[in-house]
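User: I'll paste a sequence; please echo it back and then give the predicted structure.

Assistant: Echoing your sequence first, then the prediction.
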Amino acid sequence: MRIISEARKMRRADKTKESLKVARAALEAETQEVVRTSKNLNENLGKAVKSIWRQLLFLWAIVAILAISYLWVLKSTPKAINLVEAPQAQSMQGKLLPPATPAPQTPDPASIPAGEDLIKLLNQIREAQLKKDIQLFLKAYSSDFVNLKQKKDLTLNIWRRYDYIDLQYQLSNVIQEDDSTILALVTWDIKARDHKTDDVKLLTKSYKVQFFRESSGNWLVQKLEPVDENELET
């Protein structure tokens, strides 16, 4: 009986050892699988991190290129017109008349015939226009001036419509035909404000002028011929 009991114990022990071996083998296999899975996860995580960094670097490069392009466009684009001032500027643009070809500067009075007298006369016309003094204005014209009454009426109509802000002149091409007659080109640069619209107009007007010396010795305007057609509206 003891022999049988011992044999049973041994068989049980062998079965237990066998079970332990199987369990240990399964545990080792499970451990290897966990290690292999963890290694794969680490490799995939590394690849994912590298991919994210590559994408970030690509995006940063795109942003840098766009920023450089924007700065270059700003630098090369002309300064924009202030939107508040633009409508007024466009309105004024339609009203302003471009100056004609600049006339030569007025020569030294001493270098032209009766230079000081002619300069004095033109200054008188300029002062009369700025002050709107019709009597002073008419005193610059000879009694023989053709259509002097029409000239007076036209001047008064212009003064009713405009205020002269500035008035400059240039005297050129001065030719003395005889002791009492001088021909010259007089160019006026006019800056005037329109009463109706409050717009400022710029105008350059040239005249062929015949100056005549009266018996009193004073030089006056005897004839006036416009060189161009630019006129202030009346």
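Residues 2-76 form the longest helix (75 residues). DSSP finds five helices and four strands in the chain.
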